[in-house]
Amino acid sequence: MDFILRLASDEESHHESVQQLFQQEVEHMAAEGFSQNQAAIFQRKRAEFLIREYSDFDYDPFVPFLALTNFDRYVSRYTLPDRTPDDYLELFAITCVVISWRIRSENFRLGEYLELNNINHPKLPEIQKMETLINSGLDWRPRSITALCFLSFFISLLNINEQHSEQDLKYKALKIVFRMHRDIKYTQFRPSIIAASAVLAISKTMGRYSDFKEAIVSSQFVNRVMGDLKKCMRDLMVTLITDSLTANAGILSPRASLSPPPGHDHEDTSDSSDPTDDDSSDPTDDDASDDDSTDDDGSSYSTGVGFFTLEMLWDFLLFVT
User: Fold this and answer.
1) φ, ψ (nearest 5 deg) of residue 61
2) pTM of the shown model
3) Is residue 102's pLDDT more than 90?
């Protein structure tokens, strides 16, 4: 769990202040209308599959997260043709992953990455050309402001004294953010709204919802967009309820591997602690024990995020409607 918790703090370190994050976040969103574009919806689903396939998700789940974010930012402004050839979309997705790896690891080597993923080396010039195209389309700012950047800020509003409880809350909020990221409809919301929704949902399980909502309302950064927050919360509850009723968890469950793949030494390797040493901190243990639940009549369902009960989700949906 320590590994996945570092993802948010890594991102925060790249920005000077919370105020700057709120001021600049809109510039890092997908363009308006992207979430309703049918061609984009189809392309994004295919791109998400390719990005995960070429990201080595088990080692660093932030890589596909950032790659898909940059895919959204670029494609929403520079629309790909409706009949984009599969090989072009694959090249585009691979390049988004390469850009993300360059951000995440100073030791990333493109040649080693291509070999590791069985990608033909003749693609090297094509990838380099595509890198220039994508970075140019992103105004050479591929280090996106995401919902992860805001988690610590919103969690701090809960005034949690115990470090373990704070880490547990952040971990659960991260899982919700990863789940939301898979659905194109959430690209219409500011990253801060997505983060606030995730923490707000978790605060409900802690019995702290009223306190946190009051803190958000009084926040100078969020109170002016409370309507967006309420809509995002409703959408999130519907998403989690749908996951439960269809028994399709669909949650991205990050797991850190013991050793990085060749050429992917992460810049956080200065931390000598191994996140897999402590069984209690393995995200997959949580998934195995929590994601599947049983209701009163004995039928099983999966919430997708195991710390919610179906009854709690329905209650919360009515509460925010």
Assistant:
1) -65, -15
2) 0.75
3) yes
